[in-house]
Backbone:
């Protein structure tokens, strides 16, 4: 099936540091979504992007829809312990109705 | 409160038995999805439905079946043909194709022994 490649797979950072992660595909997407999942729970939507080049913020989180339409980026500024979790990107292509998820980035924040 | 509800949270079944996982939403969403998540892995699409009485296979549909008889309900049956059914199952819904933000239920952890 179609796949979205997320990197890095995992990150171990100190509280207060900024974080960057990205998601890439060989296909063009018309929607990018970013989610956070806590252990044993369903993913929670963080940011939705609908236009190439769009830059959207949600508190300390900022995400961008790449201008090639094949990638997206998520930045977290001044990380705090509750940022710990798995971050997933998801995308919807022009020619399918399937919402495809990336492989996830596991974030660990140390005090 | 509007939302998407999966039940039960934990489910145990004997090998060879079919089991049905419930997913209900009161958000008036057209689209509904079922995903499977294995430990340390991402989400893989099992089935999805964009409208009542219609659904499509995802990337790993073998051994699963669904129905969409009502807009608010999208139950998933894990059949005995599914070779490795133990996993965390997540249901999601979105308003429609243009408003693709998907909202998830709490998940059902299925253990087959």
Residues:
């Amino acid at each position: 099936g179609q796949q979205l490649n997320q990197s890095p797979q995992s990150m171990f950072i100190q509280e207060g540091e900024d974080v960057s992660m990205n998601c890439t595909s060989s296909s063009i997407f018309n929607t990018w979504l970013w989610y956070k999942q806590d252990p044993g729970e369903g993913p929670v939507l963080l940011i939705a992007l609908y236009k190439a080049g769009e830059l959207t913020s949600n508190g300390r989180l900022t995400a961008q829809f790449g201008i090639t339409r094949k990638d997206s980026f998520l930045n977290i500024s001044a990380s705090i312990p509750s940022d710990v979790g798995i971050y997933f990107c998801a995308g919807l292509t022009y020619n399918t109705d399937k919402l495809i998820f990336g492989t996830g980035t596991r974030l660990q924040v140390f005090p | 409160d509007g939302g998407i509800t999966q039940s039960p949270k934990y489910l145990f079944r004997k090998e060879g038995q079919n089991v049905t996982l419930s997913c209900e939403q009161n958000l008036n969403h057209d689209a509904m999805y079922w995903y499977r998540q294995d430990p340390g892995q991402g989400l893989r699409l099992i089935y999805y439905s964009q409208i009542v009485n219609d659904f499509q296979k995802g990337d790993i549909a073998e051994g699963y079946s669904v129905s969409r008889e009502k807009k608010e309900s999208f139950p998933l049956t894990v059949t005995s043909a599914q070779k490795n059914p133990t996993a965390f199952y997540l249901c999601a819904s979105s308003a429609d194709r243009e408003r693709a933000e998907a909202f998830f239920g709490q998940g059902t952890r299925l253990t087959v022994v």
Remarks:
- Chain B touches chain A at residues 6, 31, 33, 35, 41-45, 48, 50, 56, 58-60, 88, 90, 92, 94, 97, 100-107, 109 (CB under 8 Å).
- The mean pLDDT of chain B is 93.
- The longest strand of chain B covers residues 43-51.
